[in-house]
Design brief:
It is a single chain. Helix content is about 30%, strand content about 25%. It is of the alpha/beta class and about 350 residues long. Helix 4 packs across helix 6 (about 190-205) and helix 4 crosses helix 11 (about 310-320). The relative contact order is 0.16. The structure holds zinc ion (2 copies).
């Protein structure tokens, strides 16, 4: 019998352990994917900790809903190895042996969110690497072939990264499309998701975006990648200069950081009728007088990853050559823990992707 080799969480706030078990046989419509690549994401750190930071020392416990040992990893690309007996035979024959990216934000299929196509917002979900075993492993079970997405001619590492960091940025920016038609959008925070967002904004919006980051090297990289202008939000004059340069502020802003300072900067840069989409999870409060929502007719909207439909749209955009791949560093699966450590220590540029 094939063995499943995986690097699993056996306790919270403890290093991942290699655990080897019998490889599960797909049942029903399930598909067994042999993992080729799995990206390492900031959410993996929160899962390993068992909590999200909310700011001011408060935390949100996320240990519920999974049994240990549990396998992290949700930016998966691999090869379809086996098909369950309940899967459509014709589709099964077509996908067997195919190289695919795996959409990980899989819902129950029965709740209101799932029925509306928003499986990423399902409360009773089977999100891979979050509430069902994920891709820091030799194999992963996927409930249905419809979650598998062709990615040729992209690299498997880039294809996997698109399923979380790329999708998060795409889904957030899509919500700003109407607002970004009125002027350049503002992107705050140029980490992995933010840099991916810059490429997506250039593909989706009529004007190149303005960016903001406290790191001068990141601002420089963003200008090279086509940003119209770059501001340092730590500079007290930045907000005024931005508002002046845009003739009264931006209509669309995306906060890829999600801290008190980043959201205050994004919201403070809005023109009347403007909107901020928030995707970052750094943590912090956002104090704003309720009156300002009215007087500025402003919207603050949170987004969480993206839908299967959006994942397919984003993949089509990338396959058409409209997105530049982010810098990727590949490491063997056995280095999963050191990859997490480096991410936590801020020593990662772009994405670290594990090679199974
Ligand atoms: Zn992620
Ligand atoms: Zn559901």
């Amino acid at each position: 019998m094939t063995k499943l080799r995986r690097f699993s969480l056996t306790a919270y706030q403890a290093p991942l352990c290699e655990t080897i078990v019998d490889c599960p046989e797909p049942t029903g419509s399930e598909v067994l994917v042999r993992v080729e690549r799995c990206g390492v994401c900031h959410s993996d750190l929160h899962m390993q900790d068992g909590f999200f930071a909310l700011g001011e020392g408060k935390t949100l416990d996320v240990r519920e809903g999974r049994t240990l040992p549990f396998t992290l990893g949700h930016e998966i690309a691999g090869v379809v190895e086996r098909i369950g007996p309940g899967a459509d035979a014709k589709i099964g024959a077509q996908i067997l042996g195919k190289k695919v990216a795996v959409y990980p934000w899989i819902g129950c299929g029965a709740c209101a969110a799932c029925k509306a196509g928003e499986e990423n917002l399902c409360n009773n979900n089977r999100h891979l690497g979050i509430s069902a075993d994920g891709g820091f492993a030799s194999h992963v079970l996927v409930p249905h072939p419809r979650y598998l997405i062709d990615y040729a001619p992209l690299s498997p590492s880039f294809a996997g990264a698109l399923m979380c960091s790329g999708l998060t940025a795409y889904s957030a920016l899509k919500r700003l499309t109407a607002h970004a038609a009125r002027g350049p959008a503002l992107l705050v925070g140029l980490g992995g998701v933010g840099m991916m967002g810059l490429g997506i904004a250039r593909a989706l919006f009529p004007q190149p975006p303005i960016v903001a980051d406290i790191d001068a090297a990141k601002r420089e990289a963003a200008l090279k990648a086509g940003a119209a202008a770059a501001f340092d939000p730590a500079d007290r004059e930045a907000r005024r200069a931005l508002i002046k340069s845009t003739g009264g502020g931006v209509f669309a802003a995306c906060d890829f950081v999600g801290s008190e300072k980043s959201l205050a900067f994004a919201a403070g840069a809005l023109a009347k009728g403007g909107k901020v989409a928030v995707t970052g999870l750094l943590g912090g409060n956002f104090p704003l007088p309720a009156t300002m929502f009215v007087l500025k007719a402003m919207t603050v909207e949170g987004t969480l990853t993206g839908t299967l439909e959006e994942a397919n749209e984003l993949m089509a955009l990338a396959r058409a050559g409209k997105l530049k791949p982010l810098p990727i560093e590949e490491r063997p699966l056995s280095q999963a823990q050191s990859a997490l450590d480096d991410l936590r220590g801020g020593r990662v540029v772009g994405r670290v992707v594990l090679v199974a």
